[in-house]
Write a structure and sequence with these properties.
Rossmann fold, alpha/beta, about 220 residues, globular, single chain, 9 helices, 4-stranded parallel sheet
């Protein structure tokens, strides 16, 4: 991991110790940003120091199997679906960063695959850095939805794949409290976590990068 143990450098050393001469880098975040994914790549490249070939997957936001996993979780809902992802400083837009565009593309693909027309997008988990961040924030967005007459919301966090702090606290606590305050029925999808369908998504991504047949 980038900010906790086991560290990226530790994992790289363990892989090299097995005799690996090719290593695939796959970050468990589907959307590319210089402020996120690029940092993982830089750390892995530094750890390998040319001792093995690195095949790095920069993004997989539009992978059909990944889209299917999320679409299955919202298909048939009568609620207004709100897709969310971690916000980043707004300056990335001026730098040409594809993060926001990739997120919106994922949302459109998932909604289209699930046949959901009533949906919107918002950001969450903004950090107090004193500079503008991408919005709208989920808490503000819930207020806007309430003003528009929406009373039933299903949140689909397309920028995350597991139940961690940004899900358990930022959504399950803060966003839910805001929804309760507004009188909005609030739910979120089950995260992919280690579900077999999602693990197969990751396996296919690695096989495709290595040019290994999917049935291998």
């Amino acid at each position: 991991m980038k900010h906790w143990t086991p560290r990226i450098a530790e994992a790289a050393e363990r892989a090299l110790a097995t005799g690996a001469d090719t290593i695939v880098g796959l970050v468990l975040a589907p959307h590319y940003s210089r402020l996120s994914i690029a940092g993982y790549r830089e750390q892995l490249e530094a750890a390998l120091a040319g001792r093995a070939q690195l095949l790095f997957i920069d993004s997989w936001h539009d992978d059909p199997a990944f889209v299917d996993v999320l679409a299955d979780r919202i298909r048939g809902t009568a609620a207004h679906v709100v897709f969310t992802a971690h916000s980043l400083p707004a300056r990335i837009l001026e730098e040409g960063d594809p993060y926001r565009d990739q997120l919106l593309e994922t949302a459109e693909l998932v909604a289209g695959r699930a046949g959901v027309r009533d949906w919107s997008f918002s950001f969450q988990s903004e950090s107090p850095t004193g500079e503008p961040w991408l919005g709208p924030d989920i808490l503000d967005h819930l207020e806007d939805l309430h003003a528009r007459g929406v009373r039933n919301v299903l949140v689909c966090p397309v920028g995350f794949v597991a139940d961690h702090l940004e899900i358990r606290w930022d959504l399950d606590r803060e966003a839910r409290d805001k929804a309760d305050e507004l009188g909005i029925e609030f739910a979120r999808i089950d995260m992919p976590n280690a579900s077999p369908a999602f693990v197969r998504v990751l396996a296919r991504l690695v096989r495709r990068t290595l040019a290994v047949p999917s049935g291998a």
